[in-house]
Structures
1.
Amino acid sequence: MLARLPGSDTVLARMGVGLGGLMSLRSTVSSRSPGSDLAVSAIASVAAVTVTTIALLIVDSLAAVDHLVIAYLLPATLIAVYYGSTFAFLTSFASGLSAAYFLFPPKFSLYIAHPMHVAELGFFMLLALTASKAVAAVTHDVRLKRPSSDSSSRAKADFPTAA
């Protein structure tokens, strides 16, 4: 048992403790208005791509490493886990544009000189979109939820059993 302190009901309710553990973090986050969720998701997507781009520019300036574009899978996957496939798609698209502009020669231009780099970027985009859709489907798809124990026991009661 937890001891109740004055003013702790609000904190415990936010943590889900006072509600029998039935309240999850997602349910507390989803109580915000839809407009703020869109803004937070968009800001998180842009921030993830920006941080990844800065890290990759630092790595690219220190060492001559090929195929840095694969590192852009991390922000797309994280956004897919936390915000769903729509923002993961936008993050993948922004990652592709950032890779074309900052990583592929000629740098600081969206023009890609070598056909192999165009193919690499195309395969990266295909992989990023597929991976983000798969991750979002696993983490956000409400149709894949298991039925509750009440509905499964009710379904069992509807079917006659052999005696």
Note: The radius of gyration is 23 Å.
2.
Amino acid sequence: MADRGSAGLSLIELIVVIMILGILVVIAVPRYLNLQQEARQAARDGLTGNLRAAAGIAYADASINGSGIINAASVYSNLADSGGLTLSGTVFTATIGGVQYTWTFTLPAGIGSAFPTT
């Protein structure tokens, strides 16, 4: 039998390398996809919090300054950073990672669109 030296990999070595790569792919791809989903959810939750804060500022502004108007436009104007949100009527829309999310502006029960001015 002749000495091969280090001319290359044997068939068994190649099969082992391919199996190891396959195992890594099976483990890594679902984990990567899950991270993308979690990132989209975090971005959505961040925009929801941003809208809630802007609504609180609009409510405080209307009640303190007596402007009396709380609507989707006043909430949108109080956003420090729109974060990709757009407003159409009473519907806020954002696209995160190719998925479109919508939030509809509605006043809480007991709050009208205008405050009485004194």
Note: The radius of gyration is 28 Å.
3.
Amino acid sequence: MAKAEVSRPAGSRPARAPAAPRGLPELNRIIHERIRLGIVSALAADSPQTFSELKKLLETTDGNLSVHARKLEDAGYVSCTKSFKGRVPRTAYRLTAEGRRALEKYVNHLEALLRTTRRG
């Protein structure tokens, strides 16, 4: 599928996300992406979950879920266990202690941003 091009006036730049207010660090880009945030949030609420459960919950494709789960696994935020139930392969994900700390830090950061915005 070809990527759609966005037309902009000559010389203009794409919109950039606003920088974090002074004193606040950047958001954790590993967790911040929608599917990855969904994965860690789902696992924080109910761990372990299978690939199929996460796919259904997040309403995403096999490929999309695989890529994002691998990114979280590479970061040490989730662990992946592969097994068989009868002859059917089963992949289960768990949130690691490091992943839980990263999610808590991310949520605390969002809360700080909201407090700063409300004071604004």
Note: The beta strands are 49-50, 78-85, 88-95.
4.
Amino acid sequence: MNSSMNKLRLIIREEITRIIVEDDWKQDPNDEADMIRVQLRAMQEKIESLLNTIQDGDQFDAWVQSKITKASDYINSVYNYQTHEEDTKNL
């Protein structure tokens, strides 16, 4: 029962977030920050779903591991770039 409630809460929160972000994006579709937020939130939803399905001891094909590694590397690169940019702005 608790698991069902948590799933329902997650679905409701995700839907509310999606509606708010999409409405904001429709007001100014050229806003790159909104586009990135939409993409990151979509990724976040999928990541949370995957995390909930993976069990200790699960085995994965090499291509799955490769895609996760690549996605992690890309996000880390953007994060490091953004945090470095913020650090240089504060100097």
Note: The mean pLDDT is 82.
